[in-house]
Amino acid sequence: MRKIKLFMLIALLNFSALSIAQNKMVGGAEMYPSKNIIENAVNSEIHTTLVTAVKAADLVTTLQSDGPFTVFAPTNSAFEKVPADALENLLKPENKKQLQTVLTYHVVAGNYMAKDVVNLINKNNGKAKVKTVSGNYITLMLDGNSVIIQDNNGNKSKVTIADVKQSNGVIHVIDTVLLP
């Protein structure tokens, strides 16, 4: 009986460690697969600008819905690459529709983990065009082991953290804002 209890305790500890190991850290916060995109993103110190923009665009409810969504989430430093006056203008209430278009350009319907993205790229001879929720397309490609996303303007962004699981999809952190 004692051996069974000890075995069960060890199994429980191993399961707990495995569960914790699956949670990724993003922006100093643990990301929980049981939480949705918004519930996790609001805790990331490197996504405060993105969260502000999502709120300004009235997309919170959408990104809390069932999805699934694959979100290419630009960091604060990615938003710093955008001219300050352009970003400030985009966040104005009268430009909400344009902001929604920019933000939904970072979202693909479905749950695409890194392996799925790489398979799609390889299946399409090194470049895969993917339709975003905005209705526009992004191009996915590889540079060595890194996934690169090219927007309609030729700007490129690199996935810096992949496979951040969410209850309603997955987040891939990127280093440049994509523009339709």
Task: Summarize the SSE layout with pairings.
Layout: H1 2-22, E1 25-26, E2 29-30, H2 37-41, H3 48-56, H4 60-64, E3 69-74, H5 76-80, H6 84-90, H7 96-104, E4 107-109, H8 114-123, E5 127-131, E6 137-143, E7 146-150, E8 156-166, E9 169-174
Parallel strand pairs: 3-9
Antiparallel strand pairs: 1-2, 3-4, 5-6, 6-7, 7-8, 8-9
**Principal-axis shape:** globular
Strand arrangement in the largest pleated sheet: 4-3-9-8-7-6-5
The CA-CA distance between the termini, in Å, is 64 Å
Q: Segments where pLDDT lies below 50 for 5+ residues?
A: 3-21
* Total number of beta strands: 9
Number of helices: 8
Q: What this model shows, in words?
A:
- With 180 residues, the protein is α+β, with helices and mostly antiparallel strands.
- The chain has eight helices and nine strands.
- The protein has helices at residues 2-22, 37-41, 48-56, 60-64, 76-80, 84-90, 96-104, 114-123; strands at 25-26, 29-30, 69-74, 107-109, 127-131, 137-143, 146-150, 156-166, 169-174.
- The strands form two sheets. It has a seven-stranded mixed sheet with strand order 4-3-9-8-7-6-5.
- Strand 6 and strand 7 (146-150) form a beta hairpin.
- The protein is globular and about 40 Å long.
- Residues 3-21 have low confidence and may be disordered.
